Amino acid sequence: MHAWQSSFGSLDLQTGVAGHGVRLAARGLALAVESGKPEVLFEWSERARMLASRVQPVRAPEDEQIVADLAELREMAAEGGRRDPAREAELRQRVRERAWQHRGSGEVADPVTLDELQPALDGAALVAYVVAADRVVALVVAASDVTWVDLGGRDPIDALLGGLLPDLDVAASDLPDTMAGFVREELAGRLAALAGVLVEPVLDAVGERAVVLTPSGALAGVPWTLLPGFTGRPVTQAQSATSWLARRTTPLRSATAGFVAGPRVPRAEEEVTAAAKEWADARVLTGDDATAAAVSELASEVDVLHVAAHGRHSSENAMFSGLQLADGPWFGYDIDQLRRVPDVVLLSACEVGRSTVRWGDELIGMTTAWLHAGARCVIASAAAVNDRAAYDVLVAVHQQLAAGVDPATALAAAVPAVSADTAPVPLVCFG
User: Fold this and answer.
1) CA distance 206 to 213
2) What does pLDDT average to over the chain?
3) CA-only gyration radius of the chain, Å
4) 58 and 105 in contact (C-beta within 8 Å)?
5) Which of 72, 148, 242, 309 has its CA 20 to 30 A from that of 272?
6) Which residues lie below 8 Å from residue 418, measured CB to CB, with a gap of 6+?
7) Does 241 have pLDDT greater than 90?
8) In this structure, what are the phi and psi dihedrals at residue 121, rounded to the nearest 5 degrees?
9) How many CA atoms within 13 Å lie on the side-chain side of 230?
């Protein structure tokens, strides 16, 4: 099945066909949990999660028809554009079907083994969260040891996750002080309870190390950087240990930076201008200059790309999730058309760190599209982001990045703990 999956060049198809292996993956994970053997659980954690992340990507040549169709969609979706739902549906389907025709590499990376992973952790700990049908298990892997942690049944976790994203969205909005304090205290309580189930049980095994997480799809929307025990600690959410290790084979590129401010975001221009001052010769696109074509050109030429814009996750087709630019939305499908992608992408936008969980436990969304295209790291949020809070955090992140600090460490130093006095900044480092 994995070999068949690798024959497709489209991320949409790769994640879609993974669902045909869902029964096999669920059975394998259940048996692995029952086995009590760390090496078996780790192997099946890798085999059953994010299969598309192990398919070697192919940079397809620019498709003129897709580019033209995306431009027409953008024009209709732009402010003042003439909406034609029937034509939009036709264009979306045509873009999707054209992308399906791109041939895949036919190459699949074998899942990394524990013996291969441990020497490469370099002072970090990997926590593999495995969510089975009715039980949750964490495997903590460090250079010298492996610890199996039973986290209990799924029901308490599912209950806490049920209202998490709405709570985050409301807490990020501009509310009267008395209401804001109450809402954020409630959110802090939910995050503390979630940390009590997911984080506290693994802390003894993790120690003071930086953390790499490989969570099952059921945990896709968790703002790990805000959970007590992980706040202030470098945390990277990886698609799999295999993909995380592959991304570390070459040094991170961070010599050049580009910045984009989309329309109607109160502090977008202020944010990108302040952050750009931390870099030598940074390029900045604002106002009418921040068009899809200009952003695509900029993204193809810089090592670090920061976009501050309104974002929207499309649950119907996650590759049509987008960032609002001067001439309309810049879609996930636009990323596929780039000649080259930055190593580090920062998305100061609501929702674009969100992913749709497909029936094979595959994730697809704007963040996945960047990683599939070759980005090493994406900093994004699955929930709404408060403009003022994002400004403070992301300017601080760029101060660190420009000095050569890695993205997860830079983010950890900038994101504050949730309190009644501050809006949450649920930015997570993916990659």
Assistant:
1) 11
2) 89
3) 21
4) yes
5) 72
6) 171, 184, 187, 188, 191, 226, 424
7) yes
8) -70, -30
9) 32
Nearest-angstrom CA–CA distance, 64 and 166: 39
71: CB partners within 8 A, 6+ apart: 292
Check whether 360 has a pLDDT greater than 50.
no
Across the strands, what pairs with 139? Answer: 128, 148
Does residue 372 contact residue 105 with C-beta atoms inside 8 Å? no
Q: Provide the terminal-to-terminal Cα distance of the chain, rounded to the nearest Å.
A: 25
The predicted model scores a pTM of 0.90
Picking from 286, 271, 278, the residue whose alpha carbon sits closest to that of residue 387 is 271
The token pair that represents 260 in the structure block: 């984009």
Structure tokens at 8: 């497709």
CB atoms within 10 A of CB 284: 20
* Main-chain dihedrals φ then ψ at residue 53, nearest 5 degrees: -70, -15
Q: What would the pLDDT profile of 7-40 be if each residue is shown by its tens digit?
A: 888 888 877 777 777 788 888 889 999 999 999 9
Nearest to 353 by CA among 374, 373, 332: 332
Ranked by mean pLDDT, the top range of 92-96, 165-169, 380-384, 397-401 is 397-401
Task: Confirm if 296 and 285 have CB atoms less than 8 A apart.
Answer: no
pLDDT at 48 over 70: yes
Q: What's the Cα-to-Cα distance from 91 to each of 327, 390, 402, rounded to whole Å?
A: 18, 34, 41
Characterize the bridge pairing of strands 124-131 and 135-141: antiparallel
